[in-house]
Amino acid sequence: MDKIDYKILNILKEKGREKASDISKEIHLSVSAVLDRIKKMEESGIIKGYTVMVDTKALGNDVTALMEISLEHPRFHDSFTEMIIDHPNIVDCYYLTGDYDFVLKITCSSSDELERIHRTIKSMTGVSATRTHFVLKEIKNVYTAIPEEGKKTIHSKAAP
């Protein structure tokens, strides 16, 4: 990865549907070179896929909550994560260190729906405790962070 790759990534991060021809104009590189670089980043796994970011409120999901979960024992990890992966209202799940084992980001249409989701999670075998936080306002929501070129920790060469 070099400065040009980072420029391409940042453009795609902001405008995922940007045409290679427009990217080439912005970074002063041929269209074929831009396409080659994108393809290499896809093949190497740096670019994992493309997605659409939606306004959850516009879709009727007015409630966002963060729920911390503790499990009784690590043996419940797999069954818990399988349920979480399949649940359509759980949009993010992180395995943690500290007092709780997981934190979930949940979006839903109402506090009544959140209560139903909460009861479902609390009733799962192995769940010992939960703590739920209602999100009042979204301040920042960035799908991914791209390190500045030269400050990365992956794929970097060690100093001589």
From TrEMBL:
Keywords: DNA-binding, Transcription, Transcription regulation. Transmembrane segments: none annotated. The keyword Transit peptide does not apply. Residues 1-62 form the HTH asnC-type domain. PROSITE patterns: HTH_ASNC_2. Pfam families: AsnC_trans_reg, HTH_24. This is Lrp/AsnC family transcriptional regulator.
